[in-house]
Fold this protein.
Amino acid sequence: MMAINNMPDHLHLFFGLHPTESISSIMEAVKGDSSKWINEQAFLHNRFQWQEGYGALSHSRSQIDGVVKYVLQQQEHHRKITFLEEYRKMLVQAGVAYDERYIFMEPLVE
């Protein structure tokens, strides 16, 4: 784990990945274990669960310092642009076609 930071509506994890590991298996473990722990601790009145899916980006070794800085400065960064605006912008810049139905949804407040 190189950096981790959270916002009220999303979480950034920056980690190295061994070629034999898959992002999907790591995200399954992270989301499953954290959901179980949050619910066992009864931090919320309702049951916690992550949204389906996740976004994943890769970076070269030369970008590590910049990405760590980006992750650690999320609170300041998102005063200028929302997560959803930034995520869509990243997808467009990367040339990734996407379906709005599968894009991050605002958290439900109960």
Remarks:
- The chain has one domain: 3-102.
